[in-house]
Design goal:
In chain A, about 65% of the residues lie in helices and about 0% in strands. Chain A has helices spanning about 1-5, 20-25, 40-45, 50-75, 85-105, 110-115, 115-120, 125-135, 140-170, 180-185, 195-215, and strands at about 170-175, 175. The chains are: A mainly alpha (about 220), B alpha+beta (about 240).
């Protein structure tokens, strides 16, 4: 690849320096793709009724973002700029189809629950957003980390949302019953709102509210 | 590689697409057996669960436990066809495309230790967003429903998707598909009018009207089909 020829051999750097760590941790809070950049909202509303499929979705998205970031970054100097979006799309689609096929072969139950949403990772704005914003202009290794970080950031949010939706919507956590039958007998009922996508909107909104009340520096100054 | 000029662009595009295609073709070929096995396993587990065989490994003994028959429109068995490999949904699709197509149905017969027969019917229909399907266990009398399970591809969670919950499925237990005169009346999935003692109706899902109607239609179409075979065969036995 061309950058190898152009640049002098880099000094030995630690595998996870300060800069690298920032790439991984920033998207978890201050630059979270879902709550701050408000990307990938669609799937966080759709798949978060239960924690188990949500977990698989988080891992799938992380794999796709990280790998597509890495592949695109490897090719970034060779991609003709006129067709760069379609090349990115091709790479993402290939990875998404691979993930989907793997799930169908080895995690059939979960793949059934996630149904179309695995395929829809292609349209997840986080993926294309990171490719355009980061991978096209950075080296492969930082791009891989950036992808991982953003995948984790997405995962943290959807898992949090799924936790509350599963708890209040079906009284379970990871499929295990946590609200005892005695409480149901006393008149408690599951919250139906949590089972529909609108419920996720409320949870995401509360998440953003709490996050912003802690991190004042995120507020835009008047 | 040049990133300028049309030829460079075309070469690059060709390269990327060819590589992607090769990778995907390889993955699909390698993973196909495992995927097919999952689909088959699920189908077998569904059918067996109707008669209470829920063990994790029961599906491995599927062939010994139940006998599969493929039946035609007159209700007579077709020889040389394996019931488990018949895709009912695509059979019905062929029928909608071409009304003269002769649909075939897969039927499974389970005999318990006392030799009592249970007919296990497979059904396929259409919900709101996509296919719905189900399995129904019919008693030896060809009238009483023992149990039923339903599933769907992408019905609305919390609404139509509720058809695969126990709450909906359990309603079917002990319902009758024939009226007192022995005529086929099916089981209707109806809203509001239901009460547990009604033999031919179950309560529909609120907010899932189109899915409920789809299930209703599926039951009516498919049970009628199987009854031809079941009635012929129980008559034969009486003779």
């Amino acid at each position: 690849m061309s950058e190898v020829l152009v640049q002098p051999p880099a000094e030995k750097k630690p595998l996870l320096g300060k800069k690298e760590r920032k790439l991984l941790t920033d998207p978890l809070s201050d630059n979270n793709p879902v709550t701050i950049q408000v990307l990938g909202i669609c799937s966080s509303l759709a798949v978060t009724t239960q924690m188990k499929p949500t977990m698989v979705m988080a891992i799938s998205v992380t794999a796709v973002v990280a790998l597509s970031n890495w592949v695109i970054s490897l090719m970034r100097n060779a991609i003709p700029s006129r067709i760069r979006i379609i090349v990115q799309l091709t790479v993402v689609s290939v990875l998404v189809i691979l993930v989907d096929q793997m799930l169908k072969a080895y995690m059939y139950d979960v793949s059934k629950q996630l149904s179309v949403f695995v395929g829809l990772i292609i349209t997840n704005c986080i993926v294309m957003g990171r490719l355009e914003a980061y991978a096209m202009g950075n080296k492969p290794y930082p791009s891989l980390l950036d992808g991982l970080g953003n995948g984790f950031g997405y995962g943290v949010v959807i898992l949090t949302v799924a936790f509350f939706r599963e708890l209040f919507g079906s009284g379970k956590v990871f499929g295990f019953k946590v609200i005892p039958d005695a409480i149901y007998e006393a008149g408690y009922v599951n919250n139906g709102l949590m089972m529909i996508p609108a419920g996720a909107l409320f949870v995401v909104a509360c998440y953003i509210w709490i996050q912003r009340s802690f991190a004042k520096h995120l507020e835009e100054k008047e | 590689m040049s990133s300028k000029g049309n030829s460079g662009t075309i070469v690059f595009a060709l390269l990327v697409t060819t590589l992607s295609a090769a990778l995907l073709a390889a993955a699909a070929t390698i993973l196909k057996p495992a995927q097919d096995e999952n689909v088959l396993k699920e189908k077998q587990q569904n059918i067996l669960s109707l008669v209470g065989l829920n063990g994790a490994n029961d599906y491995k003994k599927f062939e010994e436990l139940v006998q599969g028959v493929v039946i035609d429109e007159q209700g007579s068995p077709i020889k040389g066809l394996e019931a488990i490999s018949l895709d009912l949904a695509s059979e019905k699709k062929l029928k909608t495309k071409n009304p003269s197509y002769k649909v075939r149905y897969p039927l499974y017969i389970y005999k318990d230790k006392e030799g009592k027969v249970t007919y296990l019917l497979q059904m396929a229909g259409v919900g709101l967003w996509g296919p719905v399907w189900g399995y129904l266990a019919l008693d030896q009398d060809g009238n009483t429903v023992k149990s039923a399970i339903f599933d769907h591809k992408g019905e609305t969670p919390g609404l139509g998707a509720e058809i695969n919950t126990d709450g909906f499925e359990k309603q079917f237990n002990n319902k009758k598909v024939l009226n007192d005169q022995g005529q086929f009346v099916s089981i209707k999935v109806e809203k509001g009018k239901h009460d547990a003692s009604m033999p031919h109706a179950v309560d529909a899902i609120s907010g899932g009207t189109i899915t409920s109607n789809g299930v209703s239609k599926m039951l009516e179409e498919d049970i009628a089909f199987y009854l031809k075979y079941i009635q012929q065969n129980s008559n034969n036995k009486a003779l």
